[in-house]
Amino acid sequence: MKEFSITNLSSKTQRSVTTRLIHLFLALLIVIQLALSLVMTAPSGAQAGDQWFELHEKFGLAALAALLIFWVWSLLRNKEVKAVELFPYFSAARMAAVYADFKDVTKHALQLNMPDKSEQPFANAVHGLGIIIASVMAASGASGYFLKIGFMLGVHEVVSKLMWAYLIGHVFAAILHQLRGDAILSRMFFIKK
Ligand code: HEM
Ligand code: HEM
User: Fold this and answer.
1) Residue 116 has pLDDT above 50, yes or no
2) Which of 13, 17, 95, 128 is the most buried if burial means most Cβ atoms within 10 Å?
3) How many alpha carbons fall within 13 Å on the CB side of residue 3?
4) In the beta sheet, which residues pair with residue 44?
5) End-to-end Cα, the chain, rounded Å
6) Is the pLDDT of residue 193 over 80?
7) Is the pLDDT reported for residue 74 higher than 60?
8) pTM above threshold 0.90
């Protein structure tokens, strides 16, 4: 049986143009959706939503499409982080590697620095969580609004808090890496250094 350890679990964090393009659209769409939610008036009873809500509906469907594309792409792609690394829940060995990496990252964070390594099972698992949260947002919005499943809009509202938390934490971590000299933001967003 193949042995798993932190060092052989994760593939390189090299990301293809396709991954970076999908990520770019997804990040833009989700930031737009969260911003629109701050200004829009959603439909209530007989009253229709305003023009900002109409945009929320359209960009929301675009986000749903981008997420479906990401899910399919994460299953198909080679030489990048694999779907099982983004969603490690079905393997005890992978979960153990995520936990060990989490302890390592925490230890370094308490010393106000970051581990220098290409393997990052914990970060991969957090990215997977971001995709799950965004997918629940898009699916609950669409099913609550178009299929009129009222309960789903309740899910949409509750999970929106997690979406904000993910976005803030994710961007904060990316900026910290960039400031520390690990140019992940530039690489992810096609910025030449
Ligand atoms: C990833 C995509 C999406 C994100 C990030 C998102 C985000 C949000 C946020 C943050 C809110 C405000 C929640 C609150 O505090 O009350 C909201 C409300 C809402 N969204 Fe979305 N949304 C997305 C997709 C959609 C889609 C596809 C639809 C379908 C048309 C939709 C319909 C709604 C509706 C109807 C509300 C008002 C809910 C209420 O006030 O009861 N959303 N959305
Ligand atoms: C809420 C919307 C977002 C979601 C759901 C999301 C999701 C993800 C995912 C899944 C990955 C890993 C990609 C892969 O391995 O295939 C990733 C990486 C990354 N994201 Fe985002 N992202 C979002 C928004 C953003 C924004 C707004 C920024 C920039 C300010 C950003 C910066 C990055 C960077 C720099 C990486 C590379 C991290 C690394 O190499 O360790 N993301 N994101």
Assistant:
1) yes
2) 128
3) 3
4) 47
5) 43
6) no
7) yes
8) yes
Q: Please give the average per-residue pLDDT across 162-189, as a whole number.
A: 94
- How far, in Å, is the centroid of ligand 2 from the Cα of 49? 31
168 Cβ contact partners less than 8 Å away, ≥ 6 residues apart? none
Residue 25 inside a domain? The answer is: yes
What residue numbers bound the domain in which 72 lies? Answer: 13-188
Nearest Cα residue to 114 out of 23, 177, 36, 25: 177
Residue 12: pLDDT band (50, 70, 90) is very low
**CATH number, domain at 52?**
1.20.950
Residue with tokens 């947002």: 137
Q: Which atom belonging to ligand 2 lies closest to the Cα atom of 86?
A: 15
- 190 phi and psi angles, rounded to 5 deg: 60, 30
Q: What's the chain's average pLDDT?
A: 90
The total of structural domains in the chain comes to 1
Whether 193 is in a domain gets the answer no
AA letter at 175: I
Q: Is the pLDDT of residue 10 over 60?
A: no
Counting ligands in written order, the one closest to the CA of 119 is 2
Q: Is pLDDT at 61 greater than 90 in this prediction?
A: yes
Please tell me if the CB atom of residue 133 comes closer than 6 angstroms to any atom of ligand 2: no
CA-to-CA dists, residue 166 to 47, 77, 90, 130, 189, angstroms: 32, 24, 22, 6, 19
Residue 18 CA: which ligand is closest? Answer: 2
User: Is residue 1 a part of any domain in this protein?
Assistant: no
Whether 38 maps to a domain, the answer reads: yes
Q: Whose CA is nearest to atom 30 of ligand 1?
A: 57
